[in-house]
C-alpha cells in the first residue's frame, strides 16, 4: 500500500521573511534569508524566484523551506531546500522539491533546474535522485552539482501544464 503525504509550498511574503531572519539562530541561515529578501526587494517582479518558500505538512505546520536562488532568463535556476530536524526522513523534502520543480517548469524559459549538496549529505542526494536529478560530474561551492531537465511528451510539449496550484498557493 502506497501512501501520499500532502505538503504545501508557497513563497513567503516580506513579513514572513523578516520574521525568519530575526528568528534564525544559525548565522549562515540568517545570511541566506537576508540575501533572499534583498533579492526579492531588488527584483519585485521576480519575487517567487528570490523568496524563501515555506513548506508546510498536512497539518499546516511549517516544517522547512526551499528557495530558487534567483533566476536569469536563459540560465538554469538553482534550487535549495531544508527540512527541520524533527520532520526529516519522512519524504517531505522529496514532495516539496517535486512541487517546486512543477512550478519552475511551468515558468517561461525554464528547461532545467540545478542543485548542489554537501558531499556527505547522502539524504539530500537521495532527494535529488528521487526528483529526477542526475549528477553533472562537477563540484560547486557546496559540493557535487546535479541537474534535472523539463520532461517533454511525444509531441515535444512540456508535460508540466497546470500544476496542483491549491498546494502551491496560500491565502495570506
The CATH class: Alpha Beta
Q: What is the CA-based Rg, rounded?
A: 16 Å
Tell me the name of the CATH homologous superfamily: Gcn5-related N-acetyltransferase (GNAT)
**Total beta-strand segments:** 7
Instruction: Output the CATH topology.
Output: Aminopeptidase
- How far the N terminus sits from the C terminus, by CA atoms, comes to 35 Å
Q: Which percent range describes the beta-strand content?
A: 15-25%
Pairing-aware structural class of the strands and helices? alpha+beta
When the domains are counted, the total is 1
Mean pLDDT: 86
Q: What is the CATH architecture term?
A: 3-Layer(aba) Sandwich
Short synopsis of the structure:
By secondary structure, this protein is of the alpha+beta class.
Summarize this structure as a short list of keywords or feature phrases.
172 residues; alpha+beta; Aminopeptidase; 4-stranded antiparallel beta sheet; 3-stranded antiparallel beta sheet; 6 helices; 7 strands; globular; disordered C terminus
Describe the structure.
It is a single chain. The protein is of the alpha+beta class and 172 residues long. Strand 6 and strand 7 form a beta hairpin. 33% of the residues lie in helices and 20% in strands. It has one domain: Gcn5-related N-acetyltransferase (GNAT) (Aminopeptidase, 3-Layer(aba) Sandwich). The longest helix has 16 residues. The C terminus is likely disordered. The strands form two sheets. It has a four-stranded antiparallel sheet with strand order 1-2-3-4. A three-stranded antiparallel sheet has the order 5-7-6, covered by helices on one side. The termini are far apart.
